[in-house]
C-alpha cells in the first residue's frame, strides 16, 4: 500500500520489521469487500489517492475462510499470502465440492453481578483456612467484654419504608339503654346546679371587694371608709348566706349517703325488691308451685298478658267442672266412672313444655351454663355454674345462687378466675358450695357470707388435678364403725384420669380413689385374618368425664371416660374395674342410675345416642337416637321410673318409656343461636330447668304428662 500526495510518495515507514522481507499490513473486511468489485481500485479522499493491489484482495478473501483463532494475528507475511494465492488458483472442482469444517469457539464470560457464597464445603481447599478465621473471630468475641481495645459506637441508618396494615376486629354491638327519672330527681339535680355557680360567683365578688379596700386615697379617707364599711357588710351577708346554703347542701348529702349505706336501709330494700318480684311473677310462681292463681279484680291484664291468660284458663276450667257436674246430675253417673272419663280426656291432650321464666341478668349474658345443683335443704335455692367446655372459648367463670323469690338477680355471685365446670351443695353443711373449674382447681364457698373469696382452695395442694374437673359431688357413705353412722365426702373426676376424694380440713387435700387406665377395644377377629400388632398408647390413663354413685350402695359407682367406655368401680378396689360397658363411639358425658329401678342406668355421649343399661349385662338394652346432635346431659325424673330428660344441642327431649321407646313424648326446639347444655328436674314440682349457651336457665312446666304409678317399676 502506497500513499501519494500530488505525485509525492508519502507512505509512512513501519516502526517494526518482523521479517527482513517486505511487510504488508492486514486488510480489513471493508477494504476486502470493496476490492471484490475489481482487482484494482482507486478512491479520492480530499487531495489523496489510494490504490489496492491484488495481493491485499487475496489476503482479505482468505481471512474469511481461515479459522477464527488465526484472526488474532496482526501481520501476515507477503510470502504466506502469495502461497495461499497459488493454492487458491490450483483448486479444482472436486476441491470446491469438498466440505470444510468451521469451528466456532466460545468467548470469555463477562460477569455482571458476582455474589460470593458465605458457606464453603468442608471438602473444599479453602475449608481449613476459613475454619481458622472463624476460630480467631470466636476468640475475639469471647475476649471482647471488659477489653479496652473495643469501643461501642452508634450510627444512623436509613429509616424503613412505612407500611400500611389493616386489622380486622369483631363487629361493634350497639345497645340502647334507658332509665326512669322522677320529678324530684330532676328538681334536686337542678337545685344542685344552681347552688354551686352562685356560691362561686359570690365568693369571687367578695374577694374583689376585699382587694379594692387597701387602694383608698388619703384625700377622701372619710368617704372611702364609709363606702368600704357598707361594701364589707353587704359582702359579709352574701358570704354568710352562700356558706349556709352550701353547708345545708353538704349536710343533706351526708345525711342521704348515711341513709343509703346503712344496713337497715339495705335490708329494707332487699325485702321490698322481693315483694315486688313476687307480685310481678305471682302467676308464674303459683304455676311452678302448683298453687291456684290469685287474680286482683282491678287488674285486667299486664304487660306480658300472663294474668289474663291464667284468668281465661281458670274460667274455662270452672266452666268445664260446672258442665261435668250438670251432666253427672242428668245421667246419674258414678264419680269413679267420671274420674276415669276425665283421665281419658286428659290423655288425649298431648303433653308439652310451658315456659314460665328464665334466670338471667346482664352479668351472666354470654356465659354458657355448665352445671346446675339444688340446695339439699332449701328447695328454692339453685346454684348455677357458668363456663365454656371448649378450650378456645375459655374466659373467667361465675358461680351464682338464684332464689325463686327473685328470678331477675342472683342472691350470691362468686367470681372465678377460670370457667366453672361443676358444682354441688353439701348435705351435712348446707352453706358449703363446692366448685370445680377448667384448670383443675377445686374451691369451696360459703353461701352465707357475702364475700367473694373461697375459704378453702386446692391451689396449694400438691395432689391437685392437672385437667378440667368435669364433675364433683358430695357423697354420703355408711360408716357403721363410727358413732355418726354416715360421713360425707367430696368426690371429683378430672380429665387427667383420676377420681379423687377430697378431705375438707384446714386446707383441701385429696387422695386418689381410682386411676382410670386405658383399655383396648375388643375387635372380633375374622377367620383367616392375621393378628395385628397393638398400637402404642400415648398416655396410660384415660380422661374421666362423669360418674354416679349407686343410690343404695355408695360403695359402687360408675365412671364414664373419653374413650366411650363406662367402668363399674368399687371404693374398696383402686386398681381394677369390676366391669366395663362398651357401647358408645364417643366421649360419655353423663351417667345416671335409675332412682327406682336401681339395676338400670342411662348414659349419653357425643355420638348422638342415649343408651339404657342393666348392670348385670355388658351389652346395651335400648338405644335412643332421635336426632343427629350431641347429647350433653340426661337426668331421671324424681317421680317416675320411666321418665327422663335429655339435653341435646338443638332440642330438649322428654322420654316416657311406658308410652314409647322409639320417640320422645315432648321435644322443645332451641332458637337458631342457642344450644342446650344441661337439664335438671325440680325436686318438689313437675318442672324442668334447662341451661343453654347464652347464660339463661329456663324454667318449664311439664303439662299433660301421664301421672306416674309409684308401684310400677
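^ Assign residues to that structure.
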Amino acid at each position: 500500500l502506497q500513499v501519494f500526495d500530488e505525485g509525492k510518495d508519502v507512505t509512512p515507514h513501519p516502526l517494526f520489521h518482523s521479517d527482513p522481507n517486505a511487510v504488508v499490513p492486514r486488510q480489513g473486511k471493508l477494504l476486502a469487500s470493496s476490492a471484490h468489485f475489481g482487482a484494482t481500485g482507486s478512491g479520492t479522499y480530499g487531495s489523496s489517492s489510494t490504490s489496492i493491489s491484488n495481493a491485499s484482495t487475496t489476503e482479505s478473501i482468505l481471512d474469511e475462510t481461515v479459522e477464527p483463532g488465526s484472526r488474532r494475528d496482526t501481520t501476515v507475511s507477503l510470502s504466506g499470502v502469495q502461497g495461499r494465492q497459488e493454492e487458491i488458483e490450483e483448486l479444482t472442482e472436486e476441491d470446491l465440492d469438498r466440505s470444510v469444517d468451521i469451528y466456532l469457539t466460545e468467548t470469555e464470560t463477562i460477569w455482571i453481578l458476582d455474589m460470593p457464597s458465605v458457606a464453603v464445603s468442608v471438602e473444599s481447599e479453602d475449608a481449613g483456612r476459613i475454619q481458622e478465621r472463624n476460630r480467631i473471630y470466636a476468640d475475639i468475641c469471647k475476649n471482647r467484654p471488659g477489653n479496652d481495645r473495643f469501643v461501642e459506637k452508634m450510627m444512623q441508618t436509613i429509616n424503613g419504608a412505612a407500611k400500611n396494615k389493616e386489622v380486622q376486629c369483631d363487629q361493634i354491638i350497639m345497645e340502647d339503654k334507658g332509665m326512669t327519672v322522677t320529678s324530684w330527681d330532676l328538681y334536686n339535680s337542678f337545685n344542685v346546679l344552681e347552688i354551686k355557680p352562685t356560691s362561686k360567683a359570690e365568693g369571687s365578688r367578695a374577694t374583689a371587694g376585699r382587694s379594692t379596700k387597701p387602694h383608698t386615697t388619703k384625700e377622701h379617707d372619710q368617704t372611702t371608709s364609709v363606702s368600704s364599711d357598707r361594701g364589707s357588710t353587704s359582702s359579709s351577708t352574701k358570704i354568710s348566706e352562700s356558706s349556709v346554703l352550701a353547708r345545708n347542701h353538704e349536710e343533706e348529702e351526708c345525711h342521704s349517703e348515711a341513709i343509703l349505706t346503712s344496713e337497715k336501709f339495705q335490708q329494707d330494700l332487699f325485702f321490698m325488691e322481693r315483694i315486688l318480684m313476687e307480685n310481678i311473677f305471682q302467676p308464674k310462681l303459683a304455676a311452678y308451685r302448683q298453687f291456684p292463681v290469685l287474680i286482683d279484680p282491678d287488674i285486667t291484664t299486664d304487660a306480658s298478658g300472663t294474668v289474663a291468660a291464667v284468668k281465661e284458663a281458670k274460667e274455662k276450667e270452672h266452666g268445664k267442672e260446672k258442665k261435668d257436674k250438670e251432666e253427672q246430675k242428668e245421667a246419674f253417673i258414678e264419680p269413679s266412672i267420671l274420674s276415669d272419663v276425665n283421665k281419658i280426656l286428659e290423655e288425649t291432650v298431648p303433653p308439652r313444655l310451658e315456659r314460665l321464666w328464665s334466670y338471667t341478668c346482664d352479668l351472666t349474658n354470654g356465659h354458657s351454663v355448665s352445671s346446675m345443683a339444688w340446695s339439699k335443704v332449701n328447695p328454692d335455692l339453685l346454684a348455677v355454674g357458668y363456663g365454656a367446655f371448649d378450650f378456645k372459648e375459655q374466659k373467667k367463670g361465675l358461680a351464682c345462687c338464684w332464689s325463686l323469690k327473685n328470678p331477675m338477680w342472683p342472691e350470691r355471685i362468686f367470681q372465678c378466675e377460670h370457667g366453672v365446670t361443676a358444682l354441688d351443695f353439701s348435705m351435712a353443711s348446707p352453706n358449703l358450695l363446692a366448685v370445680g373449674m377448667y384448670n383443675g382447681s377445686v374451691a369451696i364457698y360459703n353461701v352465707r357470707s357475702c364475700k367473694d373469696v373461697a375459704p378453702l382452695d386446692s391451689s396449694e395442694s400438691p395432689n391437685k388435678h392437672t385437667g378440667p374437673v368435669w364433675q364433683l359431688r358430695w357423697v354420703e357413705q355408711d360408716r357403721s364403725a363410727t358413732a355418726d353412722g354416715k360421713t360425707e365426702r367430696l368426690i371429683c373426676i378430672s380429665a387427667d384420669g383420676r377420681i379423687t376424694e377430697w378431705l375438707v380440713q384446714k386446707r383441701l387435700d385429696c387422695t386418689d380413689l381410682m386411676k382410670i387406665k386405658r383399655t383396648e377395644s375388643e375387635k372380633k377377629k375374622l377367620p383367616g385374618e392375621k393378628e395385628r400388632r397393638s398400637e402404642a398408647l400415648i398416655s396410660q390413663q384415660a380422661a374421666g368425664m362423669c360418674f354416679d354413685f349407686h343410690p343404695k350402695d355408695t360403695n359402687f359407682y360408675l365412671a364414664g371416660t373419653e374413650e366411650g367406655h363406662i367402668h363399674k368401680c368399687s371404693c374398696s378396689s383402686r386398681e381394677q374395674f369390676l366391669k366395663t360397658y362398651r357401647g358408645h363411639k364417643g366421649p360419655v358425658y353423663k351417667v345416671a342410675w335409675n332412682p327406682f329401678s336401681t339395676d338400670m342406668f342411662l348414659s349419653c355421649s357425643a355420638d348422638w345416642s342415649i343408651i339404657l343399661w342393666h348392670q348385670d349385662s355388658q351389652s346395651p338394652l335400648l338405644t335412643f337416637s332421635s336426632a343427629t346432635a350431641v347429647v350433653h346431659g340426661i337426668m331421671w325424673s324424681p317421680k317416675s321410673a320411666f321418665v327422663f330428660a335429655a339435653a341435646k344441642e338443638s332440642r330438649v327431649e322428654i322420654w316416657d318409656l311406658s308410652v314409647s321407646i322409639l320417640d320422645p313424648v315432648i321435644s322443645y326446639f332451641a332458637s337458631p343461636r342457642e344450644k342446650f347444655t344441661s337439664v335438671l328436674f325440680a325436686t318438689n314440682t313437675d318442672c324442668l330447668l334447662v341451661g343453654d349457651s347464652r347464660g339463661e336457665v329456663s324454667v318449664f312446666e311439664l303439662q299433660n304428662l301421664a301421672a306416674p304409678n309409684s308401684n310400677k317399676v
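The first strand starts at residue 3 and ends at 5.
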